[in-house]
Write a structure and sequence with these properties.
This protein has one domain: MetI-like fold. It has helices at 18-64, 81-84, 88-119, 127-136, 143-153, 166-186, 190-201, 206-235, 238-243, 251-260, 264-286, 292-296. Helix 3 packs across helix 8. It has 297 residues and is an all-alpha fold. Helix content is 71%, strand content 0%.
Amino acid sequence: MDMQLAPVPQKPSPQPSEPALGAAARVARQRRMRRFSGFAIAFATGLVCCWLFVLPVMVVGLSSVAEHWSGTILPTGVSLRWFERLGSDDWDAVAASLEVGFGVALSGTLLGLWIALSLEGRDRRGVGALIDTLAMMPNGLPSVVLGLAVLIAYHKRPLDLSGSAAIVVLVQVALVLPFCYRCCAAALRPELTILREAAASLGAAPARVLVRVVLPQLMPALRASMALGFALSLGELGATLTVYPPGFATVPIVVVGEVERGYYLPASALALILLACSLLALCLIAARIPKLGALKA
């Protein structure tokens, strides 16, 4: 006799309630709104940055190769004659800007590192607070005022720098010192102090601790200080215009002179050359130097 098993009744799958569906829809809608608002904010930020920074640089680049540009949206022709018309004085200004920039960046970084190491672990009251305030004081002074102060202080014997390019380097080092000092001071973490104390407890001399322990840990901060000091030096105008000696000029001074005479296109060509040189120099400063072991391998 055949026996048939009765089918087991299947339980119906629970259906989500209307409140749950409404909550899920609201969550999905909120996610879409957040995604859209984030995209809108990023797009607006990028548009503002392009309008303020990218577009002016593009205009300078187009002006440097424009044959004629007046009353039109784009130049009427393309020509390299503005680069060909650059004379020896213009190239001397480019060389002077690069030399002063590297000198200021190196001097400001070394001086800022020295101050930061001197104040490390020191109570920021009394002498420490005074040195910190003096190092940051150029940030609160107009560059023209600082340039005039340096010019008055060093235009007579026994230390007359008014006829030398050294006075330009001096005033620019004073301007970039706060930034270089803060870059180095921010990198002095408590872990670095522990490493220095451990190396000293193992018998390492202070100079060896500085070279083998401190400087490798501070290398990113030193590169940032060099790059910041170099960039600030290339674009500095107020103090440099106050103290520069006769026969000496940097690119900003020459560009301002060209603009005052209405020669915008030659000024754009010179400015573009300085921009290319500065970008190349900043890339060299930021480049990582491979270790000796990696080179041998």
